[in-house]
DNA sequence: TTAATTGCAAAAGCTTTGCATGAAT
DNA sequence: ATTCATGCAAAGCTTTTGCAATTAA
């Protein structure tokens, strides 16, 4: 709430119910939803909202760095409002995407920076495998 | 040559000129090309080849693990025939994708595995920033 | 009031699919 | 002789765009 209000005011962007709804939906979930999923969830409360508006809102939220876009190779994007540098894990069985809190992303980036001629500014670290739930199921 | 012949025979897949051409093109480049780029390059030597065949060949090559699919968040896939675990770097200015040979991917994965309940099987590590060329240009 | 955003429909990419022809085994 | 792959065109998805109507500032 606070951050989106301040951020949008600073940048001269208008705070619309649709933009707030998209942002709050993302703040309230750990699912890393796609645009379509967000749209389906919000259409109940905002029956007139269009999918194009969801896309435009997400684009705006990404530009002001309140949201990040993930691409796990599924053929669409997922979105995440948790903006601390962190890696992601996707289960190959149930496709769920989890935040990985224990990957020292900044240390990985430092280590990498020391060895390469590239000036590294950001990263996307994806890991794939079997989540705990699916390990139990197939054990 | 050797590996694609053996691999395809083992799996009962047919070795066609198109499939060989796609694979050899990927072996001979460090550009991490898209399907479209591969198609444009091969159409000279194979005037009858279709884009759909490029896609089908890539899908097959990925399935037999001779090629890997990358997604850097551009809205399309890129392909890489270099199959040792390695990270990638994309320049935010010129969009070039580089292999990163100095990222200890397996050590990163080990470190991560020790901290999480996930069973990690593979990874895609992407870094973004400014490549050496573009650092020089803007210096 | 004015400048930006929404919502709709249409368009634009990228990738996949179905099916008849053609090629590899 | 079979079975699988190719090539074409069409379809499918996700995402973007144009523009009139609407809303936030």
TrEMBL record, chains A, B:
Binding site residues for Zn(2+): 91, 94, 131, 134
Pfam (any one): FUR
Keyword RNA-binding (UniProt): no
UniProt key word Repressor: yes
One of the GO biological process terms: regulation of secondary metabolite biosynthetic process
Gene Ontology molecular function: any one: zinc ion binding
Gene3D superfamilies hit by this protein: 3.30.1490.190, Winged helix-like DNA-binding domain superfamily/Winged helix DNA-binding domain (1.10.10.10)
Cofactor note: Binds 1 zinc ion per subunit.
Cofactor: Zn(2+)
UniProt entry keywords in alphabetical sequence: DNA-binding, Metal-binding, Repressor, Transcription, Transcription regulation, Zinc
Family, as annotated: Belongs to the Fur family.
Stated name of the protein: Transcriptional repressor
Organism: Proteiniclasticum aestuarii
């Amino acid at each position: 709430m606070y951050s989106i209000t301040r951020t949008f005011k600073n940048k001269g962007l208008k705070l619309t119910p649709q933009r707030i709804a998209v942002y709050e939906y993302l703040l309230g979930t750990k699912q890393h939803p796609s645009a379509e999923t967000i749209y389906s969830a919000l259409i109940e409360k905002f029956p007139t909202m269009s999918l194009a508006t969801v896309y435009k809102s997400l684009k705006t939220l990404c530009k002001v760095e309140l949201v990040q876009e993930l691409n796990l190779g599924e053929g669409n994007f997922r979105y995440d409002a948790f903006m601390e540098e962190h890696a992601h894990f996707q289960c190959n069985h149930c496709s769920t995407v989890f935040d990985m809190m224990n990957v020292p992303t900044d240390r990985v980036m430092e280590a990498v920076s020391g060895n390469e001629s590239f000036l590294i500014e950001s990263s996307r670290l994806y890991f794939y495998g079997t989540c705990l739930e699916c390990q139990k199921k197939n054990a």
